[in-house]
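Practice set, problem 2.
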Amino acid sequence: MKNILKYTLCVLGLAIMVSCTQEKVTYDFGENPGPAVTFASAKLKLPGLTAENNGKLEIPLYRGNVNGAVSVDVQLEGAEGLCELASTKVEFADGQNVANAVLTFDYSALTPKPANLTLSVVNEKDLAIDGIQETTFTFVKQLTYELVGTGVHYSFFWHAYFGDIAAGIWEQDLYKAQEGNYFLLKDCWTSGTDFSFYCDGTEVDWYTEDTGVSYGSYGNIYLYFTGATVAKNTDGLYELTLDVPEYYLPEYYNYALVEGGMEEFTFPEGFEFD
């Protein structure tokens, strides 16, 4: 069962979620004489990059004090050889409350492997009182996925949440990229949540920033996997195990850290890696 919108989320000691709010942009500049800037979220879920992006990616920065033209210093980490800031300053015109940090890149040089990047505001004096100083996102080329079969997904969270193992198990379609051993579990965990990862049958590389799910008034919830392994089970099928030692609940619950569990995906019968 994956229709979580029918239920009210409870604080469980075994919840498996990390959250951040993307839709809601807040700032308080009543006690801040500066521009009082903030990112919309500590983590952003961005679409895959295509040639139509024209080698440019824009990340918005918001400000509460819109009086006068200001310049805000920003820095980018994790982007070596992938992209760079068009400028290390985000410029706001008088009266403007949102401006973009612009990342430039060469699409033809991109590889299928995603990278986790962090963009941050350099000077704390520029921040709103409740402002978010840095945001992390996945920088990834859009891949071409094809359905390769249907496996089975087990979710410790949904099993425990409903107190029924059947609620934590469902058939799950597996998509593989034409570009290599990059995989997609479409609409996994709940509708609209896609899990993406690299796996060659021995090594696993899990891309956590691609696992955001909107949950109404709770904001955007992110699942974080700190470890992933793959091996054949007793039936001879590849089994992917995802570890989540603790999770970060939505703003609604005052960002509580709680104990986690695990997610497990069994590959389709007969599936073999290239």
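Problem 2, part (b): a different protein.
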Amino acid sequence: MSDRAADDLPKLDAVDRRLLAALEADGRASVSHLAERCHISRATAYARLERLQASGVILGFTTRIDHQRAGLGITAIVNVTMQQKSWRHALAEMAELPGVAMVAATTGDDDVVLLVRAADLTALRDVILERLQNLDEVRSTRSVIVLEEHWPQLLAKTFPAG
């Protein structure tokens, strides 16, 4: 990262990090609850949250889903090797494929890693073999079926809110 890009990053202090950890633990928490949990006033919590959103630190709010119960019983990590001619366009196309939950450009042997959720193996097969491998830029794919998922809350472990 260039020095200029680093200068553009918002300065986060311990209070900001506690707020982020509390939100990560419960994205539906009220401002009053966040203020209480982080030992700050409601006005301070509100102002900090506004600043964190305006600066792009908080991109939005989400819900953790039990994908199995939601009918998406198969999860796969798909490693993709690509031709390098128009990778940005290909990443955008990959993001639009059914069930693609994450697209990450990576270093190493593979160029892209996808997290794909599907109802069953037939649906997963269709996404990988019929849709993904038909993109002009895709040279090869290698898939791994996820047997069990654990999503630790990094900020909550690093910067406990309470």
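Answer key, part (b): The chain has two domains: 3-54, 74-145. The longest helix spans residues 42-54.
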